[in-house]
Amino acid sequence: MKALHVTLEGRVQGVGFRWHTRAEARALGLKGWVRNLDDGSVEAHIQGAESAVQELLDWLRSGPSGARVDECLVKDASPAEFLGFEIR
């Protein structure tokens, strides 16, 4: 099990970033959450099989169409109990 905390900066709000992230994460069988922050960035906790976490991380670096990711800050995180992947 791999867990990461990710912060994304750029044009990441108002482009469906959270909804697309949730859909991608669920398709990969990942658990965690994603949310907007007041400073205009998006924050996520993703966890699951290492290959699936890496696949979502690769996707997050560009995001959905209409998004522009200028910065992708990644930190290791401790796994937690989640029922699925949610938008907060």
UniProtKB/TrEMBL annotation:
GO terms for molecular function: acylphosphatase activity. Its EC number is 3.6.1.7. Transmembrane segments: none annotated. SUPFAM superfamilies: Acylphosphatase/BLUF domain-like. Pfam families: Acylphosphatase (PF00708). Residues 3-88 form the Acylphosphatase-like domain. It comes from the Bacteria. InterPro entries: Acylphosphatase (IPR020456), Acylphosphatase-like_dom (IPR001792), Acylphosphatase-like_dom_sf (IPR036046), Acylphosphatase_CS (IPR017968). This is Acylphosphatase. The keyword Metal-binding does not apply. It is an enzyme of class 3 (hydrolase). The active site is at 18, 36.
